[in-house]
Design goal:
single chain; about 70 residues; nucleic acid binding
Length: about 70
């Protein structure tokens, strides 16, 4: 059995996903939801959204700096 901090990163991610991206009315079907969440991950979350733990840079920018 893990401690209460084990789930914190995923709770944070899904909280951001719900508040920043998912429409209040929801989706019409599972395919629409899947496509839109994939768009959130590949486009917005990795390329546009600034992350405070990265010095307010995107994950893509941090990978470029590390290379």
């Amino acid at each position: 059995r893990g401690n209460c901090w084990d789930n914190a990163p995923m709770e944070r991610f899904f909280g951001s996903l719900k508040s920043e991206w998912i429409p209040k009315a929801g989706y019409r079907n599972e395919d629409e939801a899947s496509t839109d969440v994939l768009r959130y991950l590949t486009h917005y979350y990795n390329r546009i959204r600034l992350h405070s733990h990265n010095g307010y840079r995107t994950p893509v920018d941090m990978e470029a700096l590390a290379a």
